[in-house]
# Entry
Amino acid sequence: MHITPSPRVAVIVVAAGSGTRLAAGAPKAFVGIDEHTMLRHALRGVFSAAPAQVVIVAPSGREGEALTDAAEASGDRRELVAVVAGGETRQASVAAGLAAVWPDVQIVLVHDAARALTPGAVFDRVVDAIDRTGWGVVPVLPVIDTIKRVEGARIIGVVDRAELAAAQTPQGFRRDVLETSYAVATQEYTDDAALVAAAGHPIASVEGDPRSFKITTPADLERARSLVAQHPIPPIRSSLDRAPRVPRVGLGTDAHGFSGGGTLWLAGLEWPGEPALAGHSDGDAVAHAIVDALLSAASLGDIGTHFGTAQPEYAGAHADAFLARTAALLGEAGWAIGNVTVQVQAARPRFAARRHEAEAALSAALGGAAVSVSATTTDGLGFVGAGEGVQAFAVALIVPA
Ligand code: CTP
Ligand code: MG
# Structure
């Protein structure tokens, strides 16, 4: 029998901001902390709390990506998820989320996807406090720094720290209170509690969590990355987990055109005097074909899954960074690399003299796995023959570690 879930609580996850201050080349919620986006990490906290309807507010046009993260994070609670498009301001985005809350819901929590490492316990604590008090509830942390009042460069007073608290999310409210407060709001407020308080409703505080800091600047992202490295999201179980653990092969191909700017990087080597290849990173088609061959052998997706525009740190990266990360991903999934063979088709550069050097560089980047490189021209045929670009074909063998 199919049971329609009817939770009492909804969590609106606002993820529609552009991330101007982070400036990572993608809307902030889709920037990778590790191989997972900020939104995906935020949903880990949401789904480890008691079951609730989850309304994700995504940038208009990015709803599909939000759904992918939700599908991965929600497990057997998939039916509780909705994705809607956000607005120009955070307040407009919350309002869009609120409009998608199911009729039976009585308590609504609003959470910033940018507070990506908030533990599930904070959500439960906020709901408990609403049940106890009927008030709006904000998680807070004490202010540690001494706060000064300033006028330009001059310090004109001290503010008593004991009177201050730093507000976090999720902030929770009775649904009727939040809806009527949003309906009467005529200006922009810095958070939902301020909007609800302005409508005349009392607000209580509960203990926040240091991990709930908001990722705003590149330094915040670095901090999140080091925390996540100690406590990563367990890898998704792929169909391979039930397959017999036998050696597997994978195939990868790539092609890049010459762009004319900078120096050529190919097969992990720099080629001074040769025209550069164009690409999101350095255009090293040999390394990219190897990455795809290894990932496909392990059924771990492809190069776009792990090194796409959501991982801006790989823009401009060279083969060693891609290959080392790929070898680590395989290792985490229980695979060791048997060998890799790659053939490059290129009119130039001439590989013969540097073939062993290329093999050594690629092998070192893969932690010592055997790599063989061969090169050929195409007898003047096709885009390779015309000197427009290069292409590479790689086959990898992986074995259970
Ligand atoms: N947010 C939103 N819709 C907006 C603006 C912000 O849903 N129009 C969300 C963000 O995605 C974020 C949260 O509100 O999860 C807090 O906003 P903030 O940290 O300011 O994120 P951005 O607005 O994306 O960043 P910035 O201000 O640096 O551009
Ligand atoms: Mg903002």
About this structure: The chain has two domains: 9-230, 248-400.
